[in-house]
Specification:
The complex is a heterodimer of chains A (about 400) and B (about 500).
Chain A: H1 3-13, H2 15-34, H3 42-67, H4 75-91, H5 96-121, H6 125-145, E1 150-151, H7 155-162, H8 176-202, H9 210-232, H10 239-257, H11 259-269, H12 271-276, H13 281-307, E2 309-310, H14 318-328, H15 340-360, H16 364-388
Antiparallel strand pairs in A: 1-2
Helix pairs in contact in A: 2-15, 2-16, 3-9, 3-10, 3-13, 3-14, 3-15, 4-5, 4-6, 4-13, 5-6, 5-13, 7-13, 8-9, 10-11, 11-13, 14-15, 14-16
Chain B: E1 4-15, E2 18-29, E3 33-38, H1 44-51, E4 61-66, E5 69-71, H2 76-81, E6 84-87, H3 99-103, E7 110-111, E8 114-115, H4 117-131, H5 146-159, E9 164-168, H6 176-191, E10 195-199, H7 203-209, E11 212-217, E12 220-226, H8 233-241, E13 260-271, E14 276-287, E15 291-296, H9 302-309, E16 317-324, E17 327-329, H10 334-340, E18 342-345, H11 349-353, H12 360-365, E19 373-374, E20 377-378, H13 380-393, H14 410-422, E21 428-432, H15 440-455, E22 460-464, H16 468-474, E23 477-482, E24 485-491, H17 497-504
Parallel strand pairs in B: 3-10, 3-11, 6-9, 9-10, 15-22, 15-23, 18-21, 21-22
Antiparallel strand pairs in B: 1-2, 1-4, 4-5, 7-8, 11-12, 13-14, 13-16, 16-17, 19-20, 23-24
Helix pairs in contact in B: 4-5, 5-6
Classes of the chains: A mainly alpha (about 400), B alpha/beta (about 500).
Bound molecules: adenosine-5'-triphosphate (ATP) and magnesium ion.
Adenosine-5'-triphosphate binds near residues 41, 44 and 45 of chain B.
Chain lengths: ~400, ~500
């Protein structure tokens, strides 16, 4: 097989996997052209990652929720509500770290509450979390009734959504630590890929041919490095971006390499078989909703910190944005299918779309229509490529 | 004499990594019952899926000629239009709907734009007249046993003006009475001029009903036999597996049993949704190294009994005492039962046994993943090595252990289901219909494996089975279950088919 043919076969076979990246590239190129390069500027890329953080974090958790065939509609209201509590605590000079711990704890509790209603009481997730969505929206309104918007004066807290990681002293115009982290990320990526490939070879499983493998490594490494390079030429990695990446990495490892992760996908794939195989479906459900609660708390903190204040409409529609991101990333409502990394990319696709449209000056009404259309297109693409891969 | 209703010529079908069919020819005469047999994974279901248009024209090589005309089916709809109807092993009925609603589902009888229910009911009665006159058409399908559900499927096929009826292992989940019934219906249909293709691993019934038999092995057609020349089970087996098999049940040593490893006293299980006892006052025991058969009719409560022991996933209200391995237990969850050394092979491998979207490897290890965890993570190398071992020792036919079990043939899926329980090395293994849908060769392998497990590994086995020969051939001792209670106990020596049947219908 010659090179082009091989590439063609590879693309065709993995079209589902690569489709989203192609779409992302396509969106980025269009907006870059429309904005005469502004879209890809260091400043805007940095901005883009900050804007997508609070949705991406939710999308990661939502992936697991959808994998086990449920849904969580309460995350938007809860994120807003927890953000307001954080703001109130900080305004009363409560110290930062305990505030964050309390918010995280509350998030987990609320998530477990949802999980309990669904797993133990047997409410449909849609109903239980729809109720949560209304209750916490109401609670947020009550909470901010007297004060209106709560301004946050704590600089450390505000840095989470607006600040950047410190640099090591140097006399370049670049953020050196960011470049180093970028290099480490590339090295890590290549090492783990080589390891997987060698393993597969050892057991005679199918692998990419050597030249395709090298090409893929170079291509992806270049993209990863380009991203860090761009960030380094601006202010470096933001705290938001760092938190998003770390969470995604943890969840990636959790879902792909641990027993718990395998059990979650088993419950999604066939709950009855999972139960008869000794998996406690209730516990898994509780875990998944508890984790969603924690991530909701983190999302609330990211958002509140970014605005440096808590507002009555904070978190509005986050649930739908994160569900959309997960679906664009290819999770399946039929259960058992979906990767957290892809949901992160899904969030990036949606955030790029919004960011780009804002730069171009598309009106908010048209923005909604376009986002809806992209969501449908993504899921249709997913269904079509899935059935042809049968 | 050859008026062929169907000819399939040089059919070749490839899946990634496997050639499922290799230039297969199938000729079916008009008005006959044509049986298709072959080992697990030999390509029978695939051939029928090609015929029914499930794999559309262009997805395979070769030609289909039906009633003299070449056909290019693009979907199941196309094949149904010319009169080819398939009944798959997984029934396609809607449990919540009534019999008559199901029969006309998808091609409702309408007057104007609305469904004409009176006519629907009348027509449903009319069709059922041909197959099972006493079936009440207004009952919900979920209230019927599998045997009657099959009949509803056939009635549904009849309303589609079927000329060629394909049945993929219809009797594998039926007991003998229901099987006989079904076969009788197929013979009646033959008198009415309907041709049938029947896939089955039960060679006895094949010999009984077939007018001709086509045998597949490894995707190739190896023989075509006709009734005029006489059939014999041994001859069929020889073609199927490529060698002679002397015995259906492996020889075994005279066994000595150990202590009672499992003892059940006054065990009751109450199903809250059904509002009745599904297990009534069961007393039974199993000794170490023993194979205990549990016989009974379909619906007698054997699966319910097994589930109530194995962590009670259906949440029955349970009473009574269970002693296992010297300790008293009441498992709250299958996970606890597994930890204590119990395993349960589900009778329904697709519904509750396997995770079809997972590959062979992950299905095998899901029962005991923790033993593969090193630090935080699953040791994937170890997992692969173990899964490969099971693939070899159980002769699971798959291009790779990374193949989704969805893509395996029925019998090989069953082997994966067994492997996942051997993986946790249980002390007591409950096998619910362990050889359902499995070919003769593989059955022999599974029986041999069972003997090895009790003789060499000191395991004990409870085998629930609806096949009496299997119960008689494999069990050291037999319990018969009827109407939720244990209606009798027989030693290996005293057991006969007649005795078991008498106890099975004794309420
Ligand atoms: N969708 C698929 N993808 C990949 N391989 C497949 C697929 N369907 C079937 N196969 C393979 O094709 C071969 C034939 O399978 P098939 O289901 O036709 O066997 P069968 O004769 O019906 O066996 P059984 O008696 O166990 O039901 C098997 O090796 C199986 O693994
Ligand atoms: Mg089959």
């Amino acid at each position: 097989m010659n090179f082009i043919q091989e590439l063609g076969v590879l693309l065709k076979k993995n079209i589902r996997e690569y489709g989203m990246y192609i779409a992302l590239a396509f969106i980025m190129i269009i907006f870059t052209i429309l904005t005469k390069g502004l879209f890809l500027s260091a400043r805007n890329i940095s901005n883009l990652f900050n804007q997508m953080g609070y949705i991406a974090v939710l999308a990661v958790g939502m992936t697991l929720v959808i994998v086990i065939r449920h849904i969580d509609l309460s995350v938007g209201s809860v994120a807003g509500f927890l953000g307001a509590i954080a703001a109130a605590l900080l305004r009363n000079n409560f110290p930062l770290i305990p505030t964050i711990l309390i918010i995280a704890g509350l998030g987990i509790l609320i998530g477990l509450g949802n999980g309990f209603l669904i797993a133990n009481v047997g409410l449909p997730a849609f109903v239980a979390t729809l109720a949560g969505m209304m209750i916490f929206r109401g609670a947020l309104l009550v909470f901010t009734q007297g004060t209106g918007t709560i301004i946050i004066m704590n600089d450390t807290f505000n840095a989470i959504g607006n600040g950047y990681i410190p640099d090591i002293p140097n006399n370049t115009n670049y953020h050196l630590l960011t470049i180093i982290i970028g290099l480490v990320a590339v090295a890590f990526y290549i090492m783990s890929d080589v390891r997987t490939r060698n393993n597969k070879l050892k057991y005679n499983f199918e692998v990419l041919s050597m030249r395709m493998f090298v090409l893929k490594e170079i291509f992806i490494s270049a993209i990863i490095f380009y991203i860090f390079w761009t960030l380094a030429s601006y202010n470096g990695i933001s705290w938001t971006f760092a938190i998003t990446l770390i969470i995604t990495l943890i969840y990636h490892l959790l879902t792909t390499r641990t027993a718990l992760g395998r059990h979650i996908y088993a419950v999604g794939g066939n709950p009855d078989a999972a139960q008869l195989s000794g998996i406690d479906v209730k516990k898994i459900t509780l875990f998944v909703f508890g984790s969603m609660g924690l991530l909701t708390a983190i999302s609330g903190i990211l958002y509140t910190s970014r605005l440096q204040s808590a507002t009555p409409d904070a978190g509005n529609l986050f649930e739908l944005d994160s569900i959309a991101a997960a679906y664009v990333g290819g999770v399946s409502a039929a259960g058992g299918v979906g990767k957290v990394i892809n949901s992160l990319i899904g969030a990036l696709v949606m955030a790029s779309l919004i960011n780009g449209m804002n730069l171009v000056g598309v009106g908010i009404s048209l923005q909604y229509i376009i986002r809806g259309a992209v969501l449908i297109a993504a899921v249709v693409f997913d269904i079509k490529t899935r059935s042809s891969a049968k | 004499m050859s008026d062929y209703i169907l000819e399939m010529k040089d059919i070749t079908k490839d899946f990634p990594g496997v050639r499922a069919l290799d230039k297969v020819n199938l000729k079916v005469r008009r008005g006959e019952i044509h049986c298709l047999v072959g080992e697990n994974g030999s390509g029978k279901s695939t051939l029928m899926k090609i015929l029914s248009g499930f794999y559309p024209h262009g997805d395979f090589e070769g030609e289909i000629i039906f009633e003299g005309k070449p056909q290019k089916f693009r979907s199941i709809h196309d094949s149904e239009r010319v009169g080819i109807v398939t009944i798959y092993q997984e029934l396609a009925l809607i449990p919540e709907l009534t019999v008559y609603e199901n029969i006309f589902l998808g091609h409702e009888i309408k007057s104007g734009r609305l469904i004409d229910w009176n006519k629907t009911i009348a027509m449903a009665k009319q069709v059922l007249e041909k197959v099972k006159p006493d079936l009440d058409t207004s009952r919900k399908v979920k209230e019927l046993g599998v045997g009657h559900q099959q009949i509803v499927e056939i009635a549904k096929a009849l309303t589609k003006n079927v000329k060629l009826l394909i049945l993929d292992e219809p009797t594998s989940s039926l007991n003998e009475g229901d099987s006989e019934n079904l076969l009788k219906i197929i013979k009646d249909l033959k008198k009415q001029g309907i041709t049938s293709i029947l896939i089955s691993h039960k060679l006895k019934e094949v010999v009984e009903v077939a007018d001709s038999i086509t045998i597949l092995r490894d995707g190739k057609m190896v023989a075509n036999l006709n009734k005029e020349d006489g059939f014999s089970e041994n001859e069929i087996i020889k073609y199927m597996v490529g060698r002679e098999i002397e015995d259906i049940y492996p020889k075994r040593k005279k066994r000595e049993f150990g202590e009672k490893i499992f003892d059940l006293k006054n065990w009751k299980a109450y199903d809250k949704t059904l509002g009745r006892y599904v297990v009534k006052n069961a007393n039974m025991y199993v000794k170490k190294g023993e194979i205990v058969g549990v016989a009974g009719l379909m619906g007698a409560g054997r699966t319910e009994l097994a589930l109530s022991l194995f962590g009670n996933p259906k949440n029955y209200a349970v009473e009574g005492e269970m002693y296992f391995d010297g300790k008293k237990f009441r498992f709250k969850h299958p996970g606890e039962a597994i930890k204590a050394g119990l395993a349960y092979l589900s009778e329904d491998r697709k519904g509750t046994g396997l995770i079809l979207d997972f590959d062979v490897k992950t299905n095998i290890t899901i029962t005991g993943l923790r033993q593969l965890v090193r630090g935080f993570f699953i040791n994937e190398n170890e997992e692969i090595v173990l899964a490969e071992q099971f693939k070899d020792s159980l002769k699971i036919k798959t291009p790779s252990i990374e193949q989704k079990v969805l893509n395996l043939s029925g019998g090989n899926q069953q082997k994966v289901s067994i492997a996942k329980w051997l993986f946790v090395k249980p002390k007591l293994l409950i096998l619910d219909e362990p050889t359902r849908g499995i070919d003769v060769g593989a059955k022999y392998e599974i029986y041999t494996l069972m003997n090895k497990l009790v003789e060499e590994d000191g395991m004990s086995i409870i085998m629930v089975s609806s096949e009496l020969p299997e119960i008689l051939g494999m069990s050291d001792r037999i319990y018969v279950v009827s109407g939720g209670r244990i209606s009798g106990e027989l030693s290996r020596e005293e057991a006969t088919q007649e005795k078991i049947m008498t106890m099975a219908v004794d309420y």
